[in-house]
Amino acid sequence: MQAGIELKEMLYLIARGIQDWKKNWMHVPDSFYKGHSLFIKHCFLSNNRHPNNLYDFIHLLHRPSAEWGIPALAEVFPNDASFLSEGFGFSIEADDFLEEYENPQEFDQSVMKEILLYCREQGLDEEYRKARSFLSQPENAVLTYYNLVKKLNVFENLKVKEHVFSCYEILANSLGNYRQCPHCGWTLSLIKGQWKCNKEYLCEYFQSNANLKEFSFMESEKVYRLRAGIQRYVLLTGIFEENLYQRLRQYDAILYPDIDQFDIQVQAGEKAINIDMKDYKSPKTLANVFNNKSNHDLEKYSYDVYIVIPDYRKQLNSRYVEQFYAHLQQVKHKYIKLMTERQLLRKLKEEE
Ligand SMILES: [Zn+2]
After folding, report:
1. Is the pTM of this model over 0.85?
2. Which of 210, 257, 282, 350 has its CA 20 to 30 A from that of 36?
3. Residue-range domain boundaries for the chain
């Protein structure tokens, strides 16, 4: 277990190092050196060759992690995935890993965690729910500065308002370089001759990219969009949650019942069932989320709680659920019930 914690720390240091390095290429950040040193240590402990210089090291980070020479890593990171892709960008699996990593502040998606912690501390259930639904709406994905500031007035708490504002970034290029995503409302960029929305191109799966629209703002306006991590982990997930919530209305569904304990609560006959929606590309990353929790923390899942993955995950990988259970530690099986949206609907029907 101790090794697992250190390996997570290593991946985090590498990620933070790369993030900072991109701001100033003349200076290799300390965190990157620290990550590299831990990497060498773990290769050495496994009696494997380690990358001596930064060039070899970075090259290796583009290879599936099974080739890194650290077998224990499979506990914390999918062994068929690389950490970097296309230059110095994080792979989807690395993004998913960072989304689950507990403490870092530097990555986009962690702003949402700060909002969560703050609202939990202050007992601001309603503001939290508001923030999450604000960021889950496609019409709020790209806004002019003027409209953004105006819309943020729905928040009563100043701190929450500031946090939500920091989920946005100013558009780096002029408007003509983007089209509007028909699924999530975010920016499509032209990549190798095709309009793409963020990394995993999930949106394409739901809506065709024919007849794309340009944004109708004036060139002179300052335009803001959600930061990429927020688009991926709050907006897209929010759209799926909202969708499932609508399909569950007949069961008196509630969205975000207690400050982020679970995503949706429904009534099936006499009992309340809680749903936790999880949307990760790799079933191994998802299994690791639970493998890395103590049995005590998993206790809350033992009663009527279902972990639900969007149906399209199973359409993209028909063995998703089996691969998840194969990777989940045996002792955790009794706590976790994983199913697709469709399986959930069938189950609820049975309970009626
Ligand atoms: Zn999109």
Report:
1. no
2. 282
3. 2-100, 110-227, 248-351
Proportion of the chain above pLDDT 90, given as a percent: 55
Residue whose entry in the numeric block shows the structure tokens 């993004």:
95
Cα angle for residues 154, 157, 161 (degrees, 5° grid)? 65
Distance 314 CA to ligand 1 centre (A): 20
Distance CA 240, CA 231 (A): 13
The angle formed by the CA atoms of residues 143, 156 and 257, to the nearest 5 degrees, is 90
pLDDT score recorded for residue 252: 93
Please, what's the b/e burial string for 167-186 (b: 16 or more CB within 10 A of its CB; e: otherwise)?
bbeebeeebeebbbbbbbbb
The pLDDT, as a whole number, for residue 2 is: 62
Supply the pLDDT for residue 127: 92
User: Which of 68, 69, 72 lies closest to 84 in space, CA to CA?
Assistant: 68
Cα(203) to centroid of ligand 1, in Å? Answer: 5
C-alpha to C-alpha distance for 168 and 154, rounded to whole angstroms: 16
CA of 236 to the centre of ligand 1 (A): 8
> Across-strand partners of 188?
179
Q: Give distance in angstroms: CA of 127 to centre of ligand 1.
A: 26
Distance in angstroms (rounded) separating the CA atoms of residues 202 and 111: 22
Residue-wise pLDDT for 98-124, tens only, equals 877 765 445 666 788 888 889 888 988
Nearest to 237 by CA among 143, 155, 138: 138
Q: Which of 310, 338, 188, 167 is nearest to 237 (CA)?
A: 310
CA of 107 to the centre of ligand 1 (A): 20
Helix (H, G, I), strand (E, B) or coil at 286: helix
| H helix and E strand count, the chain | 15, 13
CA 193 – CA 316 distance, rounded (Å)? 24
HSE at residue 129, side-chain half, CA atoms within 13 A, is: 15
Could you tell me how many residues make up the chain? 352
